[in-house]
Write a structure and sequence with these properties.
Layout: E1 3-6, H1 11-15, E2 20-24, E3 35-40, E4 48-62, H2 70-75, H3 81-91, E5 101-109, H4 122-135, H5 139-152, H6 157-169, H7 173-186, H8 191-203, H9 207-220, H10 225-237, H11 241-254, H12 259-271
Parallel strand pairs: 1-3
Antiparallel strand pairs: 2-5, 3-4, 4-5
Length: about 270
């Protein structure tokens, strides 16, 4: 049972973008047709099975042919051969030298129904990783994970909303709005998504659209602090100061312990003279 371990930062593995890897030649070399059991962080507490795969092809390659080969390194997902060699030394405890032989292993992920070993909740696994990357601010990587999870379940409202939030942080507001719209087709009364859409529209420069989405959210939940906060801000940006002030006055009663609310109301009063 050949086992491959990948770093949990190797996002291209679960998105399906990466379908090859380079490893030291084993005592029993891999061959076409072998089944692979693939894990993240195999020797740590964070060990997690990510998929099973079938080897589609292998190429034997000498260390001297990869040590300074930037093309091979980039195909493997590294910036250059120096970065790849650094990873090899880390992977093999520094035990890498010119006499070593390697294999380029090409593989194809198997559908979970075709696995022979323990099955996992693949969507949950990918979503968990996406959330970790999102919370750590790695939005370029988390968006790939949310994409992969949505390929498994394109109608998951949580995923659509999180992908929208993620794309917004990358400045891709039109794509974010598309995600929110898909989520709202399923849950049209979800005030949090309506509010997120309003924020994305505001950032995209569509002030009228932002107010419209905010109004729909407000009609569903007129006492929601987050809806009121952003509604007040949108009205302020539109120059509707009196209306914005009335929203902040209402919000003060509901969320009086929030310093951001007092600060926003104070800024508005300053702008009003």
């Amino acid at each position: 049972m050949p086992i491959l371990s990948f770093s949990s930062n190797d996002i291209d593995v679960i998105t399906g973008k990466k379908r090859r890897t380079i490893r030291k030649l084993w005592k029993t070399p891999l061959k076409k047709g072998d089944r692979l059991y693939c894990y993240w962080n195999l020797v740590s507490k964070e060990k997690m099975k990510i998929f099973e795969a079938i080897v589609t092809d292998v190429e034997d390659i000498a260390f001297e042919d990869i040590v300074d080969n930037d093309d091979v390194a980039r195909e493997e997902g590294f910036k250059d051969s120096k970065e790849m060699l650094k990873e090899f030394k880390k992977m093999y405890g520094g035990r890498v030298d010119n006499s070593d032989k390697f294999q380029i292993i090409y593989f194809e992920k198997l559908d979970i129904d075709d696995w022979k070993g323990d099955k996992i909740d693949e969507k949950s696994m990918i979503t968990k990783r996406a959330d970790i990357l999102f919370d750590s601010g790695k939005f370029d990587k988390s968006t790939m994970c949310y994409d992969a999870a949505l390929r498994i379940d394109p109608h998951d409202v949580y995923l659509l909303n999180k992908q929208g939030d993620n794309l917004s942080r990358l400045g891709k507001f039109d794509e974010a709005i598309d995600c929110y719209d898909k989520a709202l087709e399923i849950e049209p009364d979800n005030v949090y998504i309506l509010n997120n859409k309003a924020i994305a529209l505001l950032n995209a420069g569509d002030l009228d659209g932002a107010l419209k989405s905010s109004t729909i959210a407000y009609n569903y939940s007129p006492s929601s602090p987050i809806v009121l906060y952003w509604r007040g801000f949108i009205l302020e940006v539109l120059g509707e100061y009196d209306k914005a002030l009335r929203v902040y006055d209402k919000l003060i009663v509901i969320d009086s312990e929030n310093p951001e609310v007092w600060n926003s109301r104070g800024n508005l009063l300053t702008d009003m003279g």
